Amino acid sequence: MDLILRNANVWKYKGLTDIGIENGKFKKIKKEISEKGEEEIDLKGKLVTPPLVEIHVHMDAVLTVGEPRFNMTGTLLEGIEIWSERKKKLTREDVKERVIEAVKWQLANGVTRIRTHVDVCDPSFTALKAILEVKKEFDGLVEIQTVAFPQEGIYSYPDGDELVRKAMEEGADVVGGIPHYEWTREDGVRDVIFAVELGKELNKLIDLHIDETDDEHSRFVEVLAAETIKNKYFGKVTASHTTAMHSYNNAYAFKLLGWIKRARLNMVTNPLDNSILQGRFDTYPKRRGHTRVKEMDSMGINVCIADDSIMDPWYPLGVGDPLQAAFVFVHYGQMSGYNEMMSLFDMITENPAKTFGCGDKYGIKEGNPADLVVYNAPTEIDALRTVAPRLYVVKDGKIVVESKPTERTIYIDGKKESVEFIK
Ligand code: FE2
Question: What does the pLDDT average to over 110-127?
Fold first, then answer.
């Protein structure tokens, strides 16, 4: 065998396991592989999961924080103002340089699939064309999906509908929308109908920014669920952000959850951005701006966690790591129950893989492409607690990321000790 990883704590497997890889595929996964590998690594009980999937990020804006100025209020509105200034200076080279850097960060964190929304309210499609070039450059290493995202509206921006259609012709993979941002409720409904019809016509996936507001009257997810059901487009449609669901009355929310399940919508929550952007018009108490993750997860709805931003006008921090977003969501979504913490790993791996359309070739099992991530932590909880660095990322059987654990030494009464933050 080409590579054998020994003594791995493989996510969802019981006990330490050896992983044998040959010709880019998982050849054998069992307690003890007797044959020798060309290369062998003893993982000494470290956690191994399938690769992470970044299912919602805005790569066109990454690494622009502070350009032309920092967001002083930290609000969505000031972020939009700053972005509209920065956007005027976008060039192909500028976008490519930033996106390539951010993709490398994501890969180093174990992300091998990225769905990026790209603002297409730009008749020249500067950002889209640049990101499509980056997509080609990373082919075979990181798979990038682009969403034709009408940041300024399909009906509130001149020829917004035509721009989304043209962006799809240009090579975007997924149809986007932003109904809550349209000028009127009626235009918001048209926005959803347009996106579902276009997605169906082109046989493409659909992913809308939807109800990303604290306004409890923003109720476009119900339209999206209804249109998905009417068009029988089950499983191909994603609702991103949906923060207004936090503010709905329970009677309405539970009715809506039933429609979401029936439509098999994929749901994406973005704890990094929405924890700082929502509740800004509240005095006290201040609302949490996240969707109803626990309830949806317990109903079997496919829920995903994503980053949304990496150092942009809306969110100044971030390193392109879905595990970091999951860590934040432990606190923000009160997901600290044991099973809840374990379910967060589903929300950054298998669930977004399903949303992405990976099919059954995703996951650690014999015969599948040998893609995996090794964490510098023995368990899921330790990985989450320490937002553990990724020691290795393996893609198609090849090690594509390797990192060295940090060594920390403390001196007590002149005696040297090392500290690892592991019990
Ligand atoms: Fe977003």
Answer: 97
Distance 80 CA to ligand 1 centre (A): 12
Structure confidence by residue, pLDDT tens digits, 190-215: 999 999 999 999 999 999 999 999 99
Say if residue 289's pLDDT is above 90.
no
Task: Give the distance (Å) from ligand 1 centre to CA of residue 98.
Answer: 18
What's the 186 CA to ligand 1 centre distance in angstroms? 22
The catalytic position among 54, 152, 182, 212 is 212
d(CA 97, CA 111): 19
- Picking from 79, 59, 227, 228, the residue whose alpha carbon sits closest to that of residue 145 is 59
Q: Which residue type is seen at 351?
A: N
Residue entry with tokens 């690594």: 41
Residues 131, 138: contact at Cβ < 8 Å?
no
What digits encode the pLDDT tens for the residues 48-88?
999 999 999 999 999 999 999 999 999 988 998 999 899 99
Contact 168, 195 (CB under 8 A): no
Q: Which domains does the chain have, with CATH numbers?
A: 3-50+363-408 (2.30.40.10), 52-361 (3.20.20.140)
Dist. CA 209 → ligand 1 center (Å): 6
Report pLDDT digits (tens) over 3-53: 999 999 999 999 999 999 999 999 999 999 999 999 999 999 999 999 999
The count of C-alpha atoms lying within 13 angstroms of the C-alpha of 110, restricted to the half-sphere facing its C-beta, is: 28
The first and second tokens of residue 336, run together, are 């600290």
**Which alpha helices (H) appear in 217-335, and where do they start and end?**
221-230, 250-263, 271-277, 293-298, 322-332
Alpha-carbon distances of 336 from 269, 341, 377, 385, rounded to whole Å:
17, 6, 18, 11
pTM: 0.97
pLDDT confidence of 220, banded at 50, 70, 90?
A: very high
CA of 117 to the centre of ligand 1 (A): 7
212 counts as catalytic:
yes
Q: Is 96 exposed, middle or buried (0-12, 13-18, 19+ CB in 10 A)?
A: middle
Cβ atoms of 145 and 356 within 8 Å: the answer is: yes
Report whether 154 contacts 165 (CB < 8 A): no
Ligand 1 center–CA 56 separation, angstroms: 6
**What is 117-149 written as a DSSP string?**
EEE--STT-HHHHHHHHHHHHTTTTSEEEEEEE
